[in-house]
Amino acid sequence: MNRFLAWLVVQIVFFILFTCRIEEKGKQNVEKIIKSKKYIYASWHGRLILFFLCARTNNTAVITSKSKDGEIAASMQKIGGCKIFRGSSKKGGKNALEKITEYMKKEGRPAMLSVDGPTGPVFKSKIGVAKLGLDTGYPIIPITFSGKKVKVMRSWDRCLIPMFFSKCTVAYGNPIYATKDLENTVAKIDSSLNKMTKELDDFYGIDLNPKTSVK
Questions:
Q1: Rounded to whole angstroms, what are the CA distances from 21 to 139, 155, 159, 165?
Q2: CA 193 – CA 141 distance, rounded (Å)
Q3: Which has the closest alpha carbon to 88: 97, 80, 79?
Q4: For 144-180, what is each residue's pLDDT tens digit?
Q5: Helix, strand, or coil (residue 56)
Q6: In contact, 16 and 164? CB cutoff 8 Å
């Protein structure tokens, strides 16, 4: 995707979000942490719209894969205001984690990760988010999104895209501090994200079956 096309898509996304009525749930519990700029947002890959809602300020660091799809995402996220690091659990992940950790600690900036990306399994975090939390000492804030009028893509991540003038909700979970027991940290993140996501999707009547189109 060339830079102009990426810019155009990002502007369309921002315009769609501008027309939406977006409610925030649970943010008051993590407001002080967010103001400190020292946090890690953890979201599902299928809620990528959150990058355009919550990661466009503070030079938020994100990791995108070195794949072709990752190149598209990186172009859009960079235009959207993010600091990009390239890598994944399968290729370049260790190097990307080292670089993003150094950036966050040196610059005092937050990060946002699609914790089940780039290829799944869906709704199951990779260990990287826990490692980043441990190495930086930053709290991990689970964050998710859902809405009334949305399109659910037929993709592995059940990507959810809001339509014009949709009523939507962004939900923030309680902060999770990583310990040396990385698997336990990941389990806490998954539990929080899955609980919040199910509650929002149930509220809006969202069916994540891959054959779903628009609710």
A1: 28, 26, 20, 7
A2: 10
A3: 97
A4: 999 999 999 989 999 999 999 999 999 999 999 999 9
A5: coil
A6: yes
pTM: 0.91
Task: Give how far Cα 125 sits from Cα of 191, 193, 208, Å.
Answer: 10, 10, 18
Read off the DSSP letter of residue 150: E
Of 50-64, 87-101, 120-134, 180-194, the one with minimum mean pLDDT is: 87-101
Position of tokens 């921002």?
14
Burial of 164 (0-12, 13-18, 19+ CB in 10 A): exposed
pLDDT tens sequence across 69-121: 667 777 888 787 888 998 765 655 678 899 999 999 999 999 999 999 888 89
Please report, for the chain, the start and end positions of each structural domain, with discontinuous segments joined by +. Answer: 3-204
- Can you list the alpha helix ranges (DSSP code H) found in the chain? 3-19, 31-36, 50-54, 68-79, 93-107, 128-136, 182-204
